[in-house]
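Re: folding output
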Amino acid sequence: MQFIDIKAIHARSAAQIDAAVAKVFEHGRYINGPEVYELEATLGEFLGGAANPLHCIAVASGTMALEVALRALKIGPGDEVITTPFTWISTAETIALVGATPVFADIEADTYNIDPQEVEKAITPKTKAIIPVDLFGQMADYPALETIAEKHGLKIIEDAAQSFGAEQNGRKAGTMGNAATTSFFPAKPLGGYGDGGAVFTADAQLAEDLRAVTNHGGKERESHYILGTNGRCDSLQAAVIHAKFANFRDEEIELRQKVGARYSEALKNHVVVPVIHPDNTHIYAQYTIRPKNRDSLGEVLRAADIPSAVYYRKCLHEQEVFTDLACAKKSFPNAEKASREVISLPFHPYLSEADQDRIIEAVIQQVKL
């Protein structure tokens, strides 16, 4: 059994992927080939609709997407950006890489997403932006966050690396804030076969700046008006993601929600299962539970040859690289408690009911010990 069976996901789109990659080899435009622009157009229309598609800029990774967004929004030295301490390090490291200061705000105990009330407490005259992370596949509380941002004149960058395919009040993940980012890392809901990512925005001028940042800060060769980088998504990666997208949209989103619901129904009386906000759908980038004893459950699962994983064992304010931050000396009790208690079970859209039942039985067996 695989924690995420990427081979099973590949099998559903193998013929389309082979054909798409072959076309790249035929035309030989490995950078800025037509596949990049096809992917951007398809994803922009998926998020904004045919009548009003979002601007989409494909980039080299989800981490690069965040850095590009920060640079295009002109966030840098002297600025503070508020984000969650309970996430992968990319969200905070990119803030520091552009010269700004990460500031952490605690999470909601039930959804694991950043708490808007804690965000507002963390705002100072130096605060320029908020980066909420849609953790584990569920969108953060954007109505509350947007109210706070408008009140204080702040930018919002949605980190939708784990939520692409989810919705909130009919709005899709990737449509929130001034800019939104996602990742096509292989284990993500819409994963590629290497690194890749995208930035989305409804702002035409910002889109122009975003694209320039990915191309060394210029629109034309040897003409650079903004400090940029090499952040482009290559044609082969774009071809793979575009080939996989139709199956993701037409089948995998629904199947992911079906598997997640079946897990939750079976486990809800034994462990803390994912709490879904009434306005949200969940894409389950990870199916994450809180048992009474994580270590004991991990041992039972290993003994049954069932893989598991922990996201995340250490909060960002506890990481050595951030020890000099003023906020690193603070306590974030909800985030710290979650990091010591949560564990994620095997999950992918094609996880068979037989394997689901085997996993469910093992979890219930451990709880009863």
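--- second protein (sequence, then structure) ---
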Amino acid sequence: RKLGEVVSKTLECEPRRWKIVEHVREKFACRDCDGVTEPPAPSHPIPRGFAGPSLLSMILVGKFADHQPLNRQSAAFAREGVEIDTSTLADWIGACVAALDPVLAKLRRHVLAAERLHVDDTTVPVLAKTKTRTGRLWTYVRDDRPFGGADPPAAFYDYSPSRHGEHPRRVLADWSGVMQADAFSGYKALYAEDRKPAPIVEAACWAHGRREVFDLAKLTKAPIAIEIVRRIDELFAIERDINGKPPDERRTARQDCSKPLVVALETYMREQYERLSPKNAVAKAIRYMLVRWASFTRFLDDGRICLSNNAAERALRGVALGRRNWTFAGSDEGGRRAAAVYSLITTCKLNDVDPRAWLANLLATLPDHPLTRIDELTPWAW
């Protein structure tokens, strides 16, 4: 008689399968009118293109989410018996970006409709004649989850060939609200009182201010730096407890708990700054915060503002990892394409959506989808 059974498990992976999908369309001739009829050809993600939506999404996610440059993807395809040249893969990415432009436009409008934005930038090497030059990828992140907002999070990227203030001014030309960013001098024109349609309100990042002091506390064991870091960490501990609560509750908690700590911190830093030499590294770190103290303390009176700009820095983390692998953008146009795809992939991640599955569905659906219903194809609605 059977006593039972013992089950052993083995995790296995089957190689991916390549296939050619053939659409057969029959032609018919009419004997009465000598006319010839034929069903219309199915829509393709790329007009007159050969690649299917799943293959295109795999290439896009492979480069911009998994950080696999196109030459490595081409080599991997060749090992599986499919020869696709690197230049062909690059052309397909460009065609996909053009096809996805309606969704990108919707994504940009959604981000710029926010009352508060996280803004940051990072370098991108761009191929030139003799050597690479340095371009910039800017990210504009809308994330209302810290204060319990109902609108979905999203990120929009923009490429520029240089780090000049005109580039964020161009993107934010018609926008006003609260902007959380670092102390980049190019943002100053956005905060001007005579700016149209209205001045942007600056909210400084406590993580940036803490980072300067933390490095000194870690490397030199400076007692003043260690004390400042300890006091700032108390503010972050309060923020962790109120994360996700409505703005009114966050403001009340900050007024009751955070404000006394901030007042005490300011008094302590001003006292220590008077005792230090202006050339002292700790004094420079303290001055960085005291000069911008109004923007650092703005979070106390507005429950929507976050204590740090980490949302933007997290959005740029994938770019920092990717450029170590694909090394450089081939041109300014390549930088703009990268910004477009990063916008889509990062927004998927913010909404807990698989970017590969969403892009495959989007590329298959978009050619026949009405532009008036483009909202149905966004990551948060899929």
